[in-house]
Design a protein that fits this description.
Blueprint: H1 8-13, E1 18-19, E2 30-31, H2 38-48, E3 52-57, H3 60-68, E4 74-76, H4 78-86, H5 96-119, E5 136-139, H6 147-159, E6 164-168, H7 187-203, E7 210-215, H8 229-242, E8 248-251, H9 258-271, E9 277-280, H10 296-302, E10 304-309, H11 312-331, H12 333-343, H13 355-358, H14 361-370
Parallel strand pairs: 3-4, 3-10, 4-5, 5-6, 6-7, 7-8, 8-9, 9-10
Antiparallel strand pairs: 1-2
Helix pairs in contact: 3-5, 5-6, 5-14, 6-7, 8-9, 11-12
Length: 390
């Protein structure tokens, strides 16, 4: 008999409350956190964790990998989405509904992935993998227009089941935070957009939807105020916090230097001692050359409660696929065989090595039998009624 291997995530899940769902075959269960709204769960995690780290992804499969590896949040990156969706840079070239649809499909995919993993693969002795669904945080850029564009976009995100979104104070069309030439809208215009975000979420019954206010004041070359640089970033952050609307504020830093980060957090907290921050541990910075890089734990101590790497998924995908393509260009089929050896190496944990299991074929087979669906779940002769077997 094949030994059932128990994933690490299942070992961590033991002792948690589980419950059945009609979307699973009889005898299978999922964590009851499935029925906690992502916005509620995200706030609770912000309150109880030293910090939350959300790997940056741009599609449902990337988010599922984040979930598989046990992360407690997913960051749906705008720049990543621009590259993955349009193959272009982050210059407001996609529309709000496009990224909202990507986020909606991602939230839906995570809920489905929890079900497929909860079945495992009974035919191969692979035990159920009990995973919590990580809340999704989405890039809302500068709102894609005026307050009514913000109204529509917030409604799309909230109804998609997103936990949080961030809005920035750049003029439209906005630029990536590490592209030069940024200009800021007046602070009152940004505050109006934040008020609209809060109003929409509250109207939809999601007063726990987390709002993150981002300022690009540190590197903006044009703004209505006379201040520039770090002084402007601190001033903007404090003005947004004065409204009581943002749950987190985010200053986009142009380098990996720790001094501006520490100064920003300290100065804002002089006026708002309980202020919490978001931080882009950006892949634009060559952290491997930094002799003393900021750690996630250090950022957490400074009050940075949500940390993310916007383009982490893009860099990993680009590196992995380029490695494969280079190997196949040089060694043809042997290049792919080398990839398979790495995937199936003992001790490795690459869930996509079995697309059969990762995409949920066992789940569909088992649920097909439970629902007596035509053909689904009836691939084998023993599944068929006796009179059908020739």
């Amino acid at each position: 008999m094949t030994a059932i291997r128990e994933p690490e995530t299942t070992r961590r899940a033991r002792g948690r409350e589980l419950a059945p769902t009609p979307l699973l075959p009889q005898g299978y269960e999922v964590p009851v956190t499935r029925w906690i709204h992502p916005a509620t769960r995200f706030r609770e995690l912000l309150r109880t964790e030293p910090y939350l780290f959300g790997p940056g992804v741009y599609d449902p499969m990337g988010a599922q990998l984040v979930m598989y590896h046990g992360y407690k949040a997913v960051y749906f990156s705008g720049y990543s989405f621009a590259i993955g969706h349009l193959g272009t840079t982050d210059m407001d070239l996609y529309s709000g509904p496009e990224i909202a649809d990507g986020a909606r499909r991602t939230v839906s995919a995570l809920r489905k992935f929890q079900l497929t993993q909860a079945v495992g693969d009974p035919s191969k002795g692979i035990a159920p993998n009990l995973l919590d669904i990580p809340p999704v945080v989405v890039d809302m850029d500068a709102g894609y227009g005026n307050i009514f564009n913000v109204q529509r976009q917030t409604e799309l995100l909230v109804t998609a089941g997103v936990a949080a979104a961030h809005l920035e104070d750049q003029v439209l069309p906005k630029r990536c935070g590490h592209i030069g030439g940024k200009a800021l809208v007046p602070a009152l215009e940004m505050i109006g957009k934040l008020r609209m975000m809060r109003a929409v979420a509250d109207d939809l019954g999601r007063d726990d939807f987390t709002i993150i206010a981002r300022t690009d004041g540190l590197s903006a070359i044009d703004a209505p105020e006379p201040a520039r640089g770090l002084d402007l970033a601190i001033e903007r952050a404090c003005r947004y916090l004065e409204t009581g609307i943002p749950d987190l504020v985010w200053c986009e830093f142009p380098t990996s230097d720790r001094e501006p980060v520490e100064t920003f957090a300290a100065e804002v907290r002089k006026r708002f001692p309980d202020a919490s921050f978001a931080f882009n541990w950006s892949s634009s910075f060559k952290w491997f050359l930094d002799p003393d890089p900021l750690t996630f734990a250090q950022l957490g101590e400074l009050g940075f409660k949500f940390i993310f790497i916007t383009l982490g998924g893009q860099h990993a995908a680009g590196h992995g696929l380029s490695t494969l393509l280079s190997a196949m260009a040089e060694r043809q089929e042997q290049g792919y065989i080398e990839l398979q050896r790495l995937e199936f190496e003992e001790g490795g944990d690459f869930p996509t090595r079995s697309h059969h299991e990762f995409s949920g074929v066992p789940y569909h087979h088992e649920l097909g039998k439970a629902y007596d669906a035509a053909r689904l779940g009836r691939e084998f002769a023993e599944d068929l009624p006796a009179e059908k077997v020739v």
